[in-house]
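Hi there, hope your week has been kind to you so far. It would help a lot if you went through both lines with me. No rush at all, and the record is pasted right below:

***
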Amino acid sequence: MPLATPIAANEADLANVTFNAEGLVPAIVQEVGTGEVLMMAWMNEDSLRRTLETGRTWFWSRSRQEYWCKGETSGDRQFVRQAFYDCDGDTLLLVVEQEGRGACHTGERSCFYRAFGAETD
């Protein structure tokens, strides 16, 4: 079983993150071993701090207006191994160890399993 490992972040790094008008920033989640993009979700400042402090991914649900920790319901947990912010500070990248069947609520490993132009059955 993977272990949660907090990520040390200083206030200067956190101040470089630019949140939108709703106080949110997109967070892309990538699998550490494969580099596969697993999902994208929204974070506010508190969920970002929770993620870094706990080593687990925490997000803000825009529809439910509440925090959620990935995998608490499904068991498909994410353990953060690295955390980055982009050159503009307006997008986050979380590199995680994915536990369970995957990141998507549909049961797929990645939320990005549908390709444009792909033939359907």
